[in-house]
Give the backbone structure.
Amino acid sequence: MGFSRDANFIITVDQTPFNSQFDEFNQILKDFSNSAILEDILDIPLPDDSGFRKQFELVAKLIRSNQFAHLLFPVKDNLIDWTEIVDTRELYNPYQTFIIIQFVYFISRKFPSKEVDFVIGYKEEYTRFIKLMDGKIISKQEEQLIEPSEMDANLLEISLKDLVIMLKYFNSL
């Protein structure tokens, strides 16, 4: 229930890559694991035609029925796995993507006076870029390299609009 190719992402804090080499990395991940992490997008007002919503709901049906509950592995109980996800900068399914988006928001709130950049997508197909400061979007950019209709249908489908809606929702909590 993953993507045919892992989606790539990059997180930077004031232009410093956020990975296991980052000062306080382990503590920040531990703090995030103890925060209120959403596991479902039901309350987020993504449009019905959102590609990300459709991908998430497809997998969510299976997880909610406990057929593929292994895809939803809590951050708190799997810190080693989540450390690896952040270090490899690769996402395999919509649940991981949703958690990482929340993590980016968390980092931005953790460092309110620093710019946090988040880039997600595929080098050959598209990238979405969001810059946050204290949980608020200060800039955004979308780069579409090929026509969406020409993309492999099994890649992560996430629009800049989807990202903005999710981040604004987290900021409203």
Q: What stands out?
A: Residues 7-172 form one domain.
